[in-house]
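> example.struct
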């Protein structure tokens, strides 16, 4: 066990582990290198995901050498439905509240072969910044939270958008 592993394990035990156990899961350090810590969870699949942001903040505050926290589940990989539910949960908690100000939302359309296919709705459908939102916002967030995904694909019919927040004319 490296020094970073030991420091993160101590931080987990001091501030995070009781909350995770109370939610029906366990969590441990699976790997750490170059300041990136991978945590492995077992137990209830939805126990850690909703509080991952708080867990990362607590670890980064306690262990200054940590620059990022990733999450993986122990055991056999989940099926596409589990991955889709996990991705939608992240979108609902971390993305949709932000883009609601633009009258938009993101929904998981389908999952297969490690790809999460998303559909942009409302003001995001036809928005000239949709690709930026996916490539610089949604995809990095989902890849950090769900390391088992291969990528994110936009399956939105942008041409059918009737009220985009940033229309192509606004560029």
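> example.seq
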């Amino acid at each position: 066990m490296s020094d970073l592993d030991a420091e993160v394990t101590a931080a987990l035990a001091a501030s995070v582990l009781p909350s995770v156990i109370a939610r029906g899961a366990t969590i441990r350090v699976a790997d750490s290198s170059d300041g990136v810590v991978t945590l492995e969870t077992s137990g209830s699949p939805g126990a850690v995901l909703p509080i991952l942001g708080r867990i990362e903040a607590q670890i980064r505050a306690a262990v200054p050498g940590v620059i990022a926290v990733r999450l993986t589940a122990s055991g056999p990989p989940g099926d596409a439905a589990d991955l889709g539910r996990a991705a939608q949960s992240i979108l609902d908690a971390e993305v949709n509240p932000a883009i609601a100000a633009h009258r938009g939302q993101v929904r998981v359309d389908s999952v297969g072969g490690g790809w999460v296919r998303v559909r942009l709705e409302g003001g995001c459908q036809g928005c000239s910044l949709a690709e930026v939102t996916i490539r610089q916002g949604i995809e990095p967030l989902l890849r950090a939270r769900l390391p088992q995904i291969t990528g994110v694909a936009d399956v939105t019919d942008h041409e059918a958008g009737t009220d985009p927040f940033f229309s192509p004319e606004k560029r």
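> remarks
The chain has two domains: 3-73, 80-170.
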